[in-house]
Amino acid sequence: MDTNRTEDASDERDCCDLEHPELNRPMPLIDQEICKRTAAIFRAMGDASRLQLLALLAKREMCVTELTTGLSDNLPAISQRLKLLRAERLVSTRRQGKHIYYSLADNHIASLIENGLAHGSETDCTFCPTA
Questions:
Q1: Second label for 129, Cα 20 to 30 Å away, from 36, 65, 87, 92?
Q2: Spatial CA neighbour of 62 closest among 95, 103, 109, 105
């Protein structure tokens, strides 16, 4: 059993360049700072409560009162989540009179939310251990 895994790993290491012509072409690396920034974005979205908040904002801009009602949560909790999401530039604000309206920062964030939720709702994913 374990020997099969060792043999499989050994087979992968022993393949030659002829089997992988793409290895002869230089592969551009993604900048380390971009990777760090992207990891921070995924960490900020990686909490279910913050993701629910972002999903609401994907529908339309809302003030804190609307978010509190929509999520059935308390104002301090919502405000704390919004603070973190603003710090990671996932959410932007617009002031109108006494109200501050929150929205997703841009279409990239909207796409991430939409695609993540779509993938999370799949029940026949062959790669998912729960399927």
A1: 36
A2: 103
Of 65, 67, 69, the residue nearest 55 (C-alpha): 67
Query: pTM of the prediction?
Result: 0.73
Contact 58, 111 (CB under 8 A): no
Fold of 48-131: Arc Repressor Mutant, subunit A (1.10.10)
Per-residue pLDDT of 65-87, as tens digits, reads 999 999 999 999 999 999 999 99
C-alpha 73/C-alpha 49 separation (Å) is 10
Query: DSSP for 31-65?
Result: PHHHHHHHHHHHHHHTSHHHHHHHHHHHH--EEHH
